[in-house]
Amino acid sequence: MHGLINRAIQSFVCATYGQSCWLRVTEAAELGIVEFEAMLVYDDDMTVQVMDALCVDLNRPRAEILEDLGTYLVSHPNMEDLRRLLRFGGVTYVEFLHSLDDLSDRVRLAVSDLSLPHLELREVSPTEYQLYCFPGLPGYSSVMVGVLRAIADDYGALAMLSHHGKKDGAEVISILLVESAFAEGRHFDLGARKS
User: Fold this and answer.
1) For the chain, which has fewer Cβ within 10 Å, the N-terminal or C-terminal residue?
2) Across-strand partners of 170?
3) pTM here?
4) How confident is the model at residue 146, as a pLDDT?
């Protein structure tokens, strides 16, 4: 597993539940380390062990934790660079949804050795979509539900999301766009500014 993914999990746990939770989880997972390096590659089993230990520590299902991770990836100030990468997908939430087919390619432009599963958006109607999350990263569809919810808020759109089961070899997320301009979205400036 790419270190960026493990590092994102570590950052999420520390920011949400505290450093002490992270230390308990790494000890329970018997990793032999307490910090992941972003640019290294780790055995997939390490990530599974961390997630198993986290589920036990928090007494929560994996899918819920992964959805929260997806929300964190978009909404937490620590993750502004990822938010920017996602927001380059379009000016509106619908444009963003249509850009998801190219997300894995955009990520590879930023980090050449990070491979994300293929996504395919299918439009059912102008307000209803299905996102197909193909295999390659366990729990990816749950993370994407959190990302899609947080990005909808970011754009000021009101969307209802749910897992729709498996179809054509992929996990399917149903997206119902209730209102595209429900609230004022978070400020986004195309040009990054350092303070």
Assistant:
1) C
2) 167
3) 0.88
4) 96
